[in-house]
Amino acid sequence: ELKVEQNPLFLSMQEGKNYTIYCNYSTTSDRLYWYRQDPGKSLESLFVLLSNGAVKQEGRLMASLDTKARLSTLHITAAVHDLSATYFCAPLRGGGADGLTFGKGTHLIIQP
Amino acid sequence: DAEITQSPRHKITETGRQVTLACHQTWNHNNMFWYRQDLGHGLRLIHYSYGVQDTNKGEVSDGYSVSRSNTEDLPLTLESAASSQTSVYFCASSAGQEPYEQYFGPGTRLTVT
């Protein structure tokens, strides 16, 4: 059974600072997805990581995947208030159509 | 533009009643999924479907059923609603090929009293 652990679950940080969210998972998966959720809203796709060593960047966010270590990271550079949200990582359960297993999410608050 | 919609957006029902939540996508995606979101649990997979007439159980399928009669729709039925099924329900879909990226609907907030 695939288990996903995100750290930290809650993070309060100041604008301008850097930080990393970690996503560890228990069994082999070479596809991992990051989503963002604003309060009361749906999930928005951020990154699709499809292979070992994959790195994707969008603005102040950068995601990476190490399938051998079963670890993905989401790095925030020079945080701004608009990045306040809950971030979920989700490795693929099995084949492409088998659904995702989500971490519990990291609730990120960025204060001025 | 292609989209995925859910209805109703909010629903209050009583214990023991049958409830059906609708999900409709215009992406022409083969794969469709139902998740529930609860505080402290993230999202958990209820059921999923690879295509018409195909359905599969996820990790929390007890008390739920789905049917897939066409590509666009995957309704979720709670056979006899229980208070433990109070949750926010999300439908998602993905293409039947790489990168299998899932697109989520707006969600249905269900309260069972």
Order of helices and strands of chain A: EEEEEEEEEE
Number of strands of chain A: 10
Structural class of chain A: mainly beta
Low-confidence runs of chain B: none
Major pleated sheet of chain A: 5 strands, antiparallel
Q: Which radius of gyration of chain B do the C-alpha atoms yield?
A: 13 Å
Report the average pLDDT across residues of chain B. 95
Helix fraction bin of chain A: under 10%
Shape of chain A: globular
Structural class of chain B: mainly beta
Radius of gyration of chain A using CA atoms only: 13 Å
State the end-to-end distance of chain B. Answer: 37 Å
Q: What order do the strands of the largest sheet of chain A run in, or round the barrel if closed?
A: 1-3-8-7-6
Jot down its keywords.
heterodimer, A: 112 residues, mainly beta, 5-stranded antiparallel sheet, B: 113 residues, 7-stranded mixed sheet, 4-stranded antiparallel sheet
Tell me what you see in this structure.
The complex is a heterodimer of chains A (112) and B (113). Chain A is an all-beta fold and 112 residues long. Chain A contains no helices and 10 strands. Chain A is globular and about 40 Å long. The relative contact order of chain A is 0.32. The mean pLDDT of chain A is 93. Chain B has 113 residues and is an all-beta fold. Helix content of chain B is 0%, strand content 48%. In chain B, strand 5 and strand 6 form a beta hairpin. In chain B, strands 2, 4, 5, 6, 9, 10 and 11 form a 7-stranded mixed sheet that branches. Chain B has a 4-stranded antiparallel sheet with strand order 1-3-8-7, with no helix packed on it. Chain B is globular and about 40 Å long. The relative contact order of chain B is 0.33. Chains A and B meet through strand 5 of A and strand 4, strand 5, strand 9 and strand 10 of B.
